[in-house]
Amino acid sequence: MSEEYLLLSDTHLGLHGSNDNWHEIVLKLFQTIADFCVKNNIKKIIHLGDFFDNRKSLNVKTIYYATLIADILNDFKTYLIVGNHDTFFKNQIHPHSLLIFNKYENINVIDSPWQLDGDIGLIPWGCGFENVELPYLMGHFEINDFRMNSGYVMKRAKLNRSDFNGFKQVISGHYHTPMVEDDINYVGAPYHQSFADVGERGFYLWSRDKDLQFIEYTDAPHFMKVTVTESMVQNVDATFIKGNIIKLIFEEDYGTVENNQIIENIQLKEPFLLYTDFSKISADLTDEIVLDTAEMVNNQEIVKDFIEKTEVPKNLDKNVIIRMIETLMDEIVED
To answer: Which one of 11, 103, 115, 232 is separated from 274 by 20 to 30 angstroms, measured CA to CA?
Structure first.
């Protein structure tokens, strides 16, 4: 039996305005991973990029949590691949935020192509791999025709699936939605980070003689949309609400008293965060209830919802407009 490696990606430490709740969520993820590795005798961890969230600056609290996580990872042979959110510039690797880990003996920062254990190529964001003649390739790749999240398929990347012909297996970070196609594996983010995320999330075990083994991680909140029904005025029978981030969507106005009663009934189920959305009833009723200080606004989702509800000339395609605006917003975020 060949050696097993633990793989994960896109932890985005410091997301949502470096909110402490999300710092703790990421720290707990790594504590769980360390316990799993010890229990299962896993010696090596590969992080496939975007350890940090903010490309331009790191909050002092975020750096503190990064050191706590580094102390955990230093107990294993760890490889941190530089992702696009770890670099200051969009089109070059240096400077990058992972340099702070160079002082740790067992943490290897991968900021140039690296050969691991004889047959694995580790490739940072934006680095070429044309001359890599190894069966296994792992990195932070942006490839066309893969789904970035629940609402957008990449069409403007420089890489295509055919660029990876010849490799036995390709495993990548970058896109937050897990997927496998044509021997190319996107592991996805290990926990939900916005309302664009759906489905189970976690980390993976990989070895040369087995398929990727998914290990579900359940100790982070899920983003969930709940459509309000009239029965919720009296009672809400939904155990899945507790600990999760809920967007409560009103498609009908049941009256001020009844609406407030529904919201109160949801609050009693102890969501991690609660939002209300009255946009399908009237723009004048739009409201948002936040039970925490986390900054959770998903701008792309807001724009998408707005365009879908707006009348446009018949010669224009709403999906094209949405993709164009998402592309512009991606560029703004990366800048």
So the answer is: 11
Under 8 Å between Cβ of 246 and 273 = yes
Q: Could you tell me the residue ranges of all domains in the chain?
A: 5-216, 221-297, 300-335
Summarised one tens digit per residue, pLDDT across range 170-215 is 999 999 999 998 899 999 999 999 998 989 999 999 999 888 999 9
pTM of the model as a whole: 0.83
Ranking 9-13, 171-175, 276-280 by mean pLDDT, the lowest is 276-280
Q: How far is CA 213 from the centre of its chain?
A: 19
Task: Identify the CATH class of 5-216.
Answer: alpha beta
End-to-end CA distance of the chain: 45
Q: What's at 154, amino acid-wise?
A: M
Residue 117 backbone zone (phi > 0: left; psi -120 to 50: alpha; other: beta): left
CB 168 within 8 A of CB 133: no
Q: What is the pLDDT of residues 284-325, one digit of tens each?
A: 544 444 444 344 445 555 566 666 656 667 667 766 777 677
C-alpha distances out from residue 1 to 4, 35, 72, 207, 279, Å? 9, 22, 27, 9, 56
Alpha-helical segments (H) within the chain: 15-18, 20-39, 60-73, 256-267, 299-309, 318-334
Residue with tokens 């932070």: 140
Please provide the average confidence, as pLDDT, over all residues in the chain.
Answer: 88
Cα distances (angstroms) measured from residue 230 to each of 195, 233, 300: 24, 6, 30
Burial of 254 (0-12, 13-18, 19+ CB in 10 A): middle
What are the residues whose beta carbons fall under 8 Å from the beta carbon of 187, sequence distance 6 or more? 7, 8, 9, 48, 171, 172, 173, 178, 203, 204, 212
**Residue 213: how many CB atoms within 10 A of its CB?**
12
Closest Cα partner for 15 from 139, 176, 250?
176
For strand 107-110 and strand 136-140, is the pairing parallel, antiparallel, or unpaired?
unpaired
